[in-house]
Design goal:
- With 282 residues, this protein is mostly beta strands.
- It has one domain: Outer membrane phospholipase (ompla), Chain C (Beta Barrel).
- The strands form two sheets. Strands 2, 3, 4, 5, 6, 7, 8, 9, 10, 11, 12, 13 and 14 form a 13-stranded antiparallel β-sheet that branches. Strands 1-15 form a two-stranded antiparallel sheet.
- A hairpin with a 7-residue loop joins strand 2 and strand 3.
- The longest helix is centred in the N-terminal third of the chain and has 14 residues.
- It is globular and about 60 Å long.
- The N and C termini lie far apart (41 Å).
Amino acid sequence: MAITKRTLKSCLAALALLSAANGLLAAEDQPLWELGAGVAAFSFPAYRGSDQTNNFLLPVPHFTYHGDFLKADRQGIRGSLFDSDWLDLSVSLALSPPVSSDDLKARAGMPDLEGTFEIGPQMDITFWRSENRARFVKLLLPLRAAITLEGAPKDIGLVFHPKLNMDITDIPGMPGWNLGTLAGPLFGDKRQHAYYYAVGPQHATADRPAYEAKAGYAGMQYLVALSKRFPKYWVGGFVRYDNLSGATFENSPLVRQKDYFAAGIAITWVLGESSTRVKVND
C-alpha cells in the first residue's frame, strides 16, 4: 500500500504528540531499551491558530532507550551532553506533521505546510528534586532550528520554548500513577512565523488579505499528562491548552482561533526489553 500524505501526517502527529504524554517513571533500575506497540486516539488543530480540528485513531510505536548519551523517553529523543544535579545540557529534537492546504478553508489555494524536523540545544535547570529523585521542578530551555521534511529541505527559522516542568511520581492516593505538567511561552523568528502565518500578495483574497509576519512572542502553552506503567503495558493521556493572544502574528488572516485544546490518550504494550538494567535519573 502506498504511503499517502495523510498517512504520513497521522504517523508524525502520533510521534510528536504522544511524546508529550509518555510514561513518567521514578529514578530506578530500568531496562536499557524497550520496544512495543499500541494504539492512540487524539484531537488537535491542523496548525496553531487553525479553526479546523484533526481527530485520529491509529497504531503507535513504544520505544524507550536510556543510554549514556542517547535517550528516548517522555521528553522525546535527545542526546545528553552534560549532566549534573542541577544542570543538564542536551540535544533536543522535535517533529511536526504536514498539513494539506486542500483540507483547510483558511489556506485554500496556498502551498501545503510540510512536516518539519527541529534540532538544537536544550538546557535544563533543576530548581528542586526530592531525595528519591521521583519528583522535581525544572526550567527547560530548548532552542531549535526547524527544517521542512521534503525532497529539498528548507530552513524555516528558529523556535525557543522555555517551559516550567513539574513531575510527580506516585500521586498521593494513586499508587503508580504519575503526573507531569509543562507551561511556558513560545517565541519564533521571522522565518518561522512567516512559514505558518504570512500571506503573499499572490495568495491574497477578499477574505484573506496579504500579511507579513514578524518575529517575537508566539503565545502560551500549558500541558498536563497522566500515566501509569504496568508490568507489560502502559496507559497515559494528556491535555494541552494553547493561547495565541498577544502573539506577534495574531492578526494574520490565517489565525482563525486564538485559544484551543488538544488532547490524546494511548495504551501501549511492551513486547520486548533489554536484559541490561540501568539507573535512570530524571
